[in-house]
Amino acid sequence: MQPFELMSADGKRIRGDCADGTDRQVLFITGFLSKRWGNKSKALAQWCRERSWGFCCYDVRGFGDSEGQFTDYTLSDWIADARAVLDMLQSGPKTTIVGNSLGSWVAWLVAQEFSIVEELILIAPAFNMMGERARSISKERLHDWHTAGWMPWDDDPLHKDWPLSWKWVEESEAYWAKTFNNLRPMKTAILHGLQDTVILPEGSKSFANELLRRDPNFPLDLRLVPGDHRLSSPEHIELFRRLMMREA
Fold this sequence. Notes:
Number of strands: 10
Strand order of the largest sheet: 1-2-4-3-5-6-9-10
Order of helices and strands: EEEHEHEHEHHEEHEHEH
Low-confidence stretches: none
Structural class: alpha/beta
Distance between the termini: 28 Å
Mean pLDDT: 93
Strand content: 15-25%
Oligomer: single chain
């Protein structure tokens, strides 16, 4: 693995790690408030190394090792960061994007724009994450978020120090409205835990239904499996590996 830095439009550096390979390369896009190196990305990097595939992962601006303040960035910036990394990978082999949670939706959106992407694996995808969040909270909390302009996702220790601007909601709804525009058929697998209470599996079901309504021949494989948001049991890891190897 070699570290890389990409200069973004605002002058802040996007930092990540990348390994060259042959035949195929895998780009991992993290979930919300997740750094680039976790259990899933480490397993992916190892599988790619064993098969001489390329592998790449990165931190979004304002989080992890990338530059910038978290509060300065929203969904459109996360999408711009993914585009910048895909631009860097354009000269390599065909790409599989593996997205996790909110990273899955980002993966779906950018994959429509890049012909180098031939396959998607979306893990517990958080489609329209902030729009759905705005609909799920109390009217009082929603009012406070809208009027104050800032609110953490939740008040628990993991989220309370990461306030989100109301712009996240506005952008989330706007991107969701065009999620199915300009469809480019590519092999897409969705893996979602049936006991997931963080990102509900109904969102993946609704996405699949709408996608197939618009394009009944779209190569979609929806896997709703026992498990929670982490999907970290040995059985989940084996299914994930089989999807990666195109064995499932």
